[in-house]
Amino acid sequence: MIVIVTQQRRIAKMTILSQPGRLGISYEQVAAAADAIIHRAERPTLKAVREQLGTGSFGTIQKHLGQWQAARREVATA
């Protein structure tokens, strides 16, 4: 986070979206982890996927896991 002081002495905060060294986890990583969990006949929960990956925020995992589940539903109904 960068803090910028304006002429009126107000502080504006600006978040840097891409921080060096922090790329986050990808959809492909979450999908591979969820597939591995399914292969073990277990349920791919947020906690199980995070344990499989060893990293990642629950918010990011939830977003990718939701996409993975939607893709599986589409294949199942096709």
Which structural class should the secondary elements be placed in? Answer: mainly alpha
List how many beta strands DSSP finds.
Answer: 2
CA(first)-CA(last) distance: 45 Å
Q: What's the order of the H and E elements?
A: EEHHH
The residue-averaged pLDDT reads 81
Q: Indicate the percent of residues in helices.
A: 40-55%
Share of β-strand residues:
5-15%
Main pleated sheet: 2 strands, antiparallel
Oligomer: single chain
Give the count of helical stretches. 3
Q: Spans of 5+ residues with little confidence (pLDDT < 50)?
A: 1-18
Could you give the order of strands across the largest sheet? 1-2
- Which value, in Å, is the CA radius of gyration? 18 Å
Assign an overall shape.
globular
What is the secondary structure topology, with strand pairs?
Layout: E1 2-5, E2 11-14, H1 27-39, H2 46-53, H3 58-77
Antiparallel strand pairs: 1-2
Helix pairs in contact: 1-2, 1-3, 2-3
What does this structure look like?
By secondary structure, the chain is mostly helical. Helices cover 53% and strands 10% of the residues. The chain has three helices and two strands. It has a two-stranded antiparallel ribbon. A hairpin with a 5-residue loop joins β1 (2-5) and β2. α1 (27-39) crosses α2. The longest helix is centred in the C-terminal third of the chain and has 20 residues, at 58-77. The chain is globular, with a radius of gyration of 18 Å. The N and C termini lie far apart (45 Å). The relative contact order is 0.14. Mean pLDDT is 81; it is low at 1-18.
